[in-house]
Specification:
heterodimer; A: alpha/beta; four-stranded mixed beta sheet; B: Nucleotidyltransferase, domain 5; Nucleotidyltransferase, domain 5; 44% helix
């Protein structure tokens, strides 16, 4: 199995090529660039570079794994649109991995913790883990003050941004972002063990902001008589 | 990649607004043109909601590519080049199409051409009426754009003569439709209502009429219609929807065709292309035919399916830039929400 993994649901644009072998998962090549505003520019060239770094051809890839968020939507969709098209053109299967699960896996923790990423609008996407591999319950989006941490350490960019709210040292939030190497390892293990992975479809967790319009605004100023009536 | 026997196979991808379009073209031959629209999801909001459109593009992109390839009877590995809309349009919507196009280009190891949506609206006419004469004037009218272009060469020489300074013509249609309790999008229902109306019953203002530019303005027209309807209601006069629709439509078609004909005259151009969603409007077409005939100008209007946003327009422009031997775009190109028409190809 030669699995191409990438994630664009956080400011980190990250790609890795992972291979499963008899002695576990080997990361053949990986790159990460942190730039919250250039996912669309960075991802495809980064994939090309990682594949070249590993000394393989894109046609050698047997699986694609992509971070499905949650994360800021515009960046998130860059990864998913890329994954769908690559899988279609290469004729290989594509699976999803929750971005928070990749972040949790990257932490390597063996005791319970909370992973949190920036959801913008002064909120975080977060979930609780018993260890790096095991999430408990669903991923949620809340204001940091409304996250029930139960005294557990919080990791991730969300923990770094709101360290004061979580009452911990900003430096304790590492790792801040998921890596594609972790995401790829997570996916290879799940595929090998037959653990189900999500479909490669986005976790938005919020509905689009849109208001159903009311009646058209009046363009005429109301007359004095009309104003009098409304008082 | 070009064989003597047939022109290269171009895949075109469009996602600048609410239509996910994918098409396959060889030269001026359209092999398949598939569109998935999210217009119904926007209807209750009275306009395109960017986030709703972006979500729909992601869902529709790969299935639309698959459907278009099946319809064209081609395999993706047969594709010689990929063309994609880089702008102008909605950032999040454009980014879905551009990301997919880059991935196809990388996986298939084929050149990628990032092209201009507005110039695509002109290029698409070649799929219906054959190669465009040089030069042409193009009038692009849609929900997002109202522009007059001087096209000396589709691939290399496109000049903006004028554009709307506020609302697009199609936007004015949507807003007036709402005033008249007609459904969204407003173009078709206003056109239908106007058939039974008298376009001279009310005189609505023609924005920027005779101001010596090729710019347009439709915001004042929309407000004038709103005033007229409110006044009539306040005074207890009946509002004839057909008359208001016809008079509004007359004002739009009048100013659009007058400036288009003036532009042809000034530049000594004998061919006018009208494209974009509003090009399907019956009054605009009739008045353009009439005025152009009088001025000795030939009008070319693609069939309605090609006038609205689709992948065919992008594939048609892609075929043109490939034929011109222009270099492909880099894989790190960005979307450009306000890409000027003079940038036909991004590289």
């Amino acid at each position: 199995m030669l699995l191409l993994a990438f994630d664009t649901a956080t400011p980190a644009v990250t790609t890795a090529l992972c291979e499963s072998g008899p002695d576990g998962v080997r990361v053949r090549a990986a790159r990460t660039t942190v730039d919250a505003r250039r996912h669309g520019e960075l991802l495809t060239p980064q994939i090309r570079t990682v594949v070249a770094d590993a000394g393989v051809d894109l046609e050698d890839v047997t699986h694609i794994a992509v971070g499905i968020g949650p994360g800021p939507y515009t960046g998130l969709r860059v990864g998913l649109a890329t994954a769908h098209a690559l899988a279609e053109a290469l004729g290989v299967p594509c699976v999803g991995v929750a971005t928070l699960d990749a972040l949790a896996w990257a932490s390597g923790r063996t005791t319970p913790f909370i992973a949190a990423t920036d959801a913008r609008r002064k909120e975080v996407f977060w979930a609780r883990y018993t260890d790096a591999a095991t999430r408990v319950g669903d991923i949620a989006v809340n204001r940091p003050a409304d996250v029930d941490t139960a005294g557990l350490p919080v990791i991730g960019h969300g923990a770094h941004l709101y360290a004061d709210v979580f009452g911990q040292d900003p430096e304790a939030a590492e790792p801040l972002y998921p890596t594609a190497a972790a995401l790829g390892e997570f996916a290879v293990r799940a595929l090998r063990d037959g653990t189900p992975l999500p479909e490669p479809r986005p976790l938005y967790l919020r509905r689009p902001d849109a208001q159903i319009p009311g009646a058209p605004k009046k363009v005429r100023q109301p007359t004095a008589a009309e104003l009098g009536r409304s008082r | 990649m070009t064989t003597a026997s047939q022109p290269p196979l171009i895949m075109g991808i469009e996602s600048s607004c609410d239509e996910t379009g994918v098409a396959f073209v060889r030269g001026c031959e359209l092999l398949a043109d598939e569109v998935a629209s999210s217009v119904d999801e926007h209807a209750r909001f009275g306009g395109v909601v960017p986030e709703v459109a972006s979500r729909a593009h992601l869902e529709a992109m790969t299935p639309t590519v698959r459907r278009a390839a099946e319809r064209a009877g081609v395999r993706l590995s047969d594709v010689d080049a990929i063309a994609v809309t880089v702008g102008p349009g909605l950032a999040g919507a454009l980014l879905v199409g551009l990301s997919a196009a880059k991935a196809y280009a990388l996986a298939l190891d084929k050149p990628l051409y990032g092209v201009n949506h507005l110039v695509g609206h002109v290029a698409v006419d070649q799929l219906e009426h054959g190669p465009l004469p040089k030069p042409v004037v193009a009038l692009l009218v849609s929900g997002g754009h109202t522009s007059l272009l001087l096209v000396r060469d589709l691939a290399t020489d496109v000049q903006l003569l004028g554009e709307t300074v506020d609302d697009a013509a199609g936007e004015a249609y949507d807003k007036v439709a709402r005033l008249l309790n007609l459904p969204y999008p407003g173009g078709p229902p206003i056109d239908r209502a106007a058939r039974d109306g008298d376009g001279t019953a009310i005189h609505f203002p023609r924005g920027k009429w005779g101001d010596g530019t090729y710019d347009f303005s439709f915001s004042g027209l929309k407000t004038a219609v709103a005033r007229w309807v409110e006044d009539a209601e306040r005074q207890g006069r009946p509002v004839s929807v057909p008359d208001v629709a016809a008079a509004f439509q007359e004002a739009v078609a009048d100013v659009l065709t007058r400036k288009a004909v003036d532009a042809c005259r000034e530049h000594g151009v004998r061919h006018l292309v009208i494209s974009g969603g509003v090009a399907a409007n019956s009054r605009l077409r009739a008045l353009a035919e009439e005025r152009c005939a009088a001025a000795g100008i030939e009008v070319r209007v693609p069939r309605p399916r090609l006038c609205t946003d689709n992948g065919a327009m992008i594939a048609a422009l892609g075929a043109e830039v490939v034929a011109a031997g222009l270099p492909p775009s880099p894989l790190d190109m960005a979307v450009d929400t306000s890409l000027p028409v003079s940038s036909v190809l991004v590289n």
